[in-house]
Specification:
The protein is 3% helix and 42% strand. By secondary structure, the protein is mainly β. The protein has a single domain, classed as Jelly Rolls, CATH 2.60.120.
């Protein structure tokens, strides 16, 4: 058994970024918070070759671009990003964006910087 409370964890960028709630041995998951004007580029735009990443949006209406297709997110939306799909989350609104992310399998080195496209 492993226990954590997200309120006890720090955001990776001070008042925004990621909170990794559980890391391994099989899955990695946490919460991401983007302030207005922030994007995946601020947090390290990337792709994965093996890992699939699922996002569940709790707050905000950012743009989510997956393999060049743009989606306007709303609370309650869920997206599964397959391995090798380029993805970029852009908070172009005036409110915070908060989402839960789940990565499977747990392979922390399967994170490749993505300099292609938006």
């Amino acid at each position: 058994m492993e226990y954590r409370n997200a309120e006890d964890l720090a955001w990776s960028m001070g008042d925004s970024g990621a909170k990794y709630v559980m890391r391994g041995p099989h899955v990695e998951w946490g919460i991401v918070k983007m302030k207005p004007g922030q994007s995946s580029k601020d947090h390290g735009k990337h792709i994965h070759h093996v890992v699939e990443e699922t996002f569940f949006f709790l707050q905000g209406t950012p743009r989510f671009i997956i393999d060049g297709v743009e989606h306007r997110v709303r609370p309650g939306d869920a997206f599964r990003v397959e391995p090798n799909e380029h993805h970029n989350l852009i908070n172009d609104t005036d409110e915070d964006c908060i989402a839960v992310f789940i990565k499977y399998p747990y392979l922390p080195d399967d994170r490749i910087p993505d300099n292609e496209g938006e």
